């Protein structure tokens, strides 16, 4: 299987401070990967690099066949259309209803209104929120907002899902829904999934790899 993520001798820095050093990692299509480590270790920093929000200081970072250190803004935007990102703080547009929040990646990609409506209906049913289609984010619980964010991340059938502590602020029901959706995307669609988390759930039914970040280095845990 082809590598979806290929990292060689990568350094990541904020200003003059090196956060991660000499990172090497290969993730194949269809793998489910956890990145763990203590608070402040650089987990979220690492995840940001995978969708181009933080540029590589040294080394090579290849996502979906594109070398992120060598592509311009236009190609990076094109790549991001095929990546789903889930944030701990949801990052929904408060002025938009639930349906339009789910549709955002499809709107950016230029899909027709028919596709927008069909995909929204299917995904909101999938995350058990069909009855909240006309609500605004501030009218939803935190768990409901994250499930909307999950639907948005899945809306454009990404080849890669990146999730930063996706269940850190959620009630048990919503957390279980999110894990079920991530498992389903991985098992049924062969979507590659990378999750940053403090705690790996004990009830996962799929195989996964685990890496830990400590003292600026990345280690695989067997």
Write a concise keyword list for the protein shown above.
single chain, 222 residues, alpha/beta, Rossmann fold, 6-stranded mixed sheet, 6 helices, globular
| Low-confidence runs of at least 5 consecutive residues | none
| CATH fold-level label of the largest domain | Rossmann fold
How many strand elements?
A: 10
List the strand order in the largest sheet: 6-7-8-3-9-10
Architecture (CATH level 2) name of the largest domain: 3-Layer(aba) Sandwich
Shape, per Cα inertia axes: globular
The number of helices is 6
CATH superfamily of the largest domain: P-loop containing nucleotide triphosphate hydrolases
**What percentage of the residues does DSSP assign to strands (E)?**
25-35%
Describe this structure in words.
There is one protein chain. With 222 residues, this protein is of the alpha/beta class. The protein contains 6 helices and 10 strands; from the N terminus they run E-E-E-H-E-E-H-E-H-H-H-E-H-E-E-E. A hairpin with a 2-residue loop joins strand 4 (58-63) and strand 5. Helix 3 (98-109) crosses helix 4 (113-126), helix 3 packs parallel to helix 5 (142-154) and helix 5 runs parallel beside helix 6 (172-189). The longest helix is centred in the C-terminal third of the chain and has 18 residues, at 172-189. The relative contact order is 0.20.
Short synopsis of the structure:
With 222 residues, this protein is of the alpha/beta class. It has helices at residues 43-50, 73-80, 98-109, 113-126, 142-154, 172-189, and strands at residues 3-14, 17-28, 32-36, 58-63, 66-67, 83-86, 160-164, 192-196, 209-214, 217-221.
């Amino acid at each position: 299987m082809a590598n979806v993520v290929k990292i060689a001798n990568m350094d990541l820095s904020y200003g003059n401070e090196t956060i991660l050093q000499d990172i090497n990692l290969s993730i194949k299509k269809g793998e489910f990967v956890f990145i763990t480590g203590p608070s402040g270790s650089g987990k979220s920093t690492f995840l940001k690099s995978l969708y181009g929000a933080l540029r590589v200081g040294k080394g090579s970072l290849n996502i979906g066949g594109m070398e992120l250190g060598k592509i311009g803004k236009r190609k990076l935007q094109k790549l991001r259309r095929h990546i789903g990102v889930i944030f701990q703080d949801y990052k929904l547009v408060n002025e938009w209803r639930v349906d339009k929040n789910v549709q955002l990646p499809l709107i950016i990609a230029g899909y027709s209104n028919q596709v927008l409506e069909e995909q929204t209906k299917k995904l909101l049913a999938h995350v058990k929120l069909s009855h909240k289609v006309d609500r605004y984010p501030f009218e939803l619980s935190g768990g409901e907002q994250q499930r909307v964010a999950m639907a948005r991340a899945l809306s454009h059938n990404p080849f890669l899902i990146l999730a930063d502590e996706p269940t850190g602020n959620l009630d048990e029901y919503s957390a279980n829904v999110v894990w079920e959706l991530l498992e389903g995307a991985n098992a049924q669609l062969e979507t590659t999934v990378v999750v940053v988390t403090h705690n790996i759930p004990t009830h996962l039914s799929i195989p996964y790899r685990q890496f830990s970040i400590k003292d600026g280095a990345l280690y695989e845990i067997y």
